[in-house]
What does this fold into?
Amino acid sequence: MPSSYFIGLMSGTSTDGVDGVLAQLPDNRPIDSGLRLRQDPAGPLDVTASAQAITVLASASLPLPAALRQELLALNSTGPDELARAALAANTLADCYANAVAALLKQSGLQAADIRAIGAHGQTVRHAPESGYTLQINAPARLAEYTGIAVVADFRSRDVAAGGQGAPLVPAFHAALFGSGAGRVVLNLGGIANVTLLDDPIQGFDTGPANMLMDAWIQRHQGQAYDRNGAWAAQGRCHTGLLAALLAEPWLALPPPKSTGRDLFNLAWLQARLDTLSERPTPVDVQATLLRFSVETIAQAVRRHASGVRAILACGGGALNPVFMQALSQALPCPLGTTADHGVPVQSVEALAFAWLAQAHVLGLPACLPAVTGARHATIAGCLYPA
Ligand SMILES: Nc1ncnc2c1ncn2[C@@H]1O[C@H](COP(=O)(O)OP(=O)(O)OP(=O)(O)O)[C@@H](O)[C@H]1O
Ligand SMILES: [Mg+2]
It folds into this structure.
């Protein structure tokens, strides 16, 4: 019988590190051919139905080496010799992924031969579905060679080819994990914030930045990769003029399906809004305003598109920021908890999603939901590099 052990590796837009999970996944998937969930939509918020069947055997978060992080961030913009640099950065990223796999195998006591496949997302350096492409640099052949495990990669392009956003990919997994039911929302606070409305049909879309602009701003002014526990933002005051200028971004008013990334929300975008102000806020006030901006865009999206929401479960690194979470819970129209309250650590959700998506690929199940991405039809996500 084929193994049901899968590894998921996620390195998201924050470019902070690699999150990895080794899990045993049931072969009996809760998605039927119509991509509707079989669970009772009126049932209580209970992860036991599917989450109990998913057993996480190991998890690891490895920071990216500083030089690689810098190069990946630089590769988000056009630069000299970028093709060769991207290829080399992809190789170094695959080496980090291989280190994460080694750590997961060691922790679990399993061997490479026990693992059915690795789902490796790669690092997004361009996301332009409206122009027909999304680009995650990755070296899946190298990862398969170094680990001796089959690798599923390039999860987004097929959906883009079918006219979709190629994002978000996680809603089907969120539904499998937490069940579908009116009024539940999963909120991922990574570099970008994305929501999954666990309804019928499932919906999901990016709402705008979560941590990305705050990370970039504190890096520029304090030399830190992120604002630990929101301590710096908490010392500042929201600048209403800047907040209004940020909220005027037309992308925010677009209806779903929609997705975004560093292509739009970056320091140049922020600088252009700062330049419109007659009086320049202090750096710490900008940080406080960026936090408020993330909170407002998330709350607006929930109010507009999930008016009947009963409970919100946050995950991703932003869920570890108490200042962010406190501000969100005041702005949102219903109680805010985290996936950890339901047994899934906030930093493991996205990595577990890529283990699940790898399994969907090897089982030949379409996991890109057209209702979410706007594609013409459902597609099987990813491409397989055999062991
Ligand atoms: N203790 C903390 N305090 C404040 N912020 C934190 C803390 N821990 C993590 N973060 C934030 O979370 C970010 C990382 O989150 P995460 O790994 O979920 O995002 P990601 O890599 O962009 O993933 P994805 O794009 O898949 O959502 C960090 O860059 C940082 O901004
Ligand atoms: Mg991350």
